[in-house]
Design a protein that fits this description.
By secondary structure, the protein is of the alpha/beta class. Helix content is 18%, strand content 29%. It has two domains: 142 residues, VC0802-like; 149 residues, Rossmann fold. Helix 3 crosses helix 4. It is elongated, with a radius of gyration of 23 Å.
């Protein structure tokens, strides 16, 4: 079975690393591979079954007429069908034009009603969900066998402004993978640590000035109220860190970080053991200080913005700070 994993731009290699079998092809936000059934890929937005490939879909609107000849080799499923679409490069047609052209062609093949998204309405429950992507002059049509996209995690019942996209959090978690304690000092809805827990055994602890959403998403998790600028942890007590700091973009910095944002890095340098790793999602270049050094960078595009996942390592002896006690549940 030929499958297609859709990813955030920049996470294609992470998805490749998760795929057990050989990768057939990598395109813009796509990884093609073969498997007997769609697997769970933590770093993918969706995993789809390739149904048809149509060439000759250039930039002209008239090129969409070539979709009339598609013949997907997949059985019908559902009471109707819907299509979502995207393309790379400038075109003389819109996303909705592409969706409607593919939807009309699929409707003729399957004899099912097509539900357009052009007016902003969501398709009804139980439709056969298709995705069409165009890169160069090649259109790929793929079907989602699951009920919803892979990035819509069942655990995420509560959210907060600036909450992290789960596949991005999963990619960050793959970069830590320590045999010990992992910390998120600004845990928000708990996404980073929950994604880490889904990938392997370890101890996790999350702090936030308001950890209520994290407690809803994982009632059994170790969540506590604390200021990231003064962590209630002993020196060298954690093995790894996952962090998406609130640097006054979607979320304003609060507590001690509102006045002194550098306190976050000073505290992380203190509580992470020597040689431990910090994985941080940042909008600005990381300034090396407090003995923290950049080990690797991974560029992404999130919501139209360029961001970077930094792998940061502690290389110096531990900083000390009096009056800090190990956190207890």
């Amino acid at each position: 079975m030929l499958l297609l994993a859709r990813t955030v731009r920049g996470l294609e290699n992470f998805a490749c690393q998760e795929i057990a079998g050989p990768v057939r092809r990598v395109r813009h936000r796509e990884v093609w591979f073969e498997a007997g059934a769609p697997p769970e890929l933590h770093t993918a937005d969706d995993v789809l079954v390739v149904g048809a490939i149509v060439t000759g879909i250039g930039a002209a609107r008239a090129d969409l007429g070539r979709l009339r000849g598609l013949r997907p080799d997949l059985p019908p499923a559902g009471r109707g069908l819907d299509v979502s679409a995207s393309f790379v490069g400038r075109r003389a047609y819109t996303r909705h034009d592409l969706e409607d052209a593919a939807g009309a062609a699929l409707s003729r093949v399957y004899g099912l009603p097509y539900h357009s998204r052009r007016g902003g309405q969501a398709p009804p429950e139980g439709t056969m969900a298709w995705r069409v992507t165009v890169e160069g002059d090649e259109a790929v049509l793929a079907w989602r066998p699951g009920g919803r996209p892979a990035h819509r995690r069942p655990y995420k019942l509560a959210s907060v402004p600036g909450t992290l996209h789960p596949p991005v959090a999963a990619a960050m978690a793959r970069l830590v993978r320590p045999e010990g304690t992992v910390l998120d000092p600004c845990c928000g809805a708990g996404t980073t640590l929950i994604e880490a827990a889904r990938q392997g055994p370890a101890a996790y602890v999350g702090f936030d000035l308001d950890p209520a959403a994290a407690r809803v998403n994982d009632p059994a998790g170790r969540w506590a109220r604390a200021d990231a600028g003064a962590l209630p942890l002993t020196t060298g007590s954690v093995d790894g860190v996952l962090v998406n700091p609130p640097w006054n973009r979607q979320v304003p910095a609060r507590g001690r970080l509102a006045e002194r944002p550098e306190l976050l890095w000073r505290e992380l340098a203190r509580v992470v053991r020597p040689g431990g790793r910090i994985v941080a999602l940042l909008h600005e270049p990381f300034e090396e200080r407090f003995g923290l050094r950049v080990r690797a960078r991974h560029g992404l595009r999130l919501s139209g913005r360029l961001v970077t996942i930094y792998e940061i390592q502690s290389r110096t002896s531990r900083l000390t700070s009096a009056g800090r006690s190990r956190w207890r549940k």
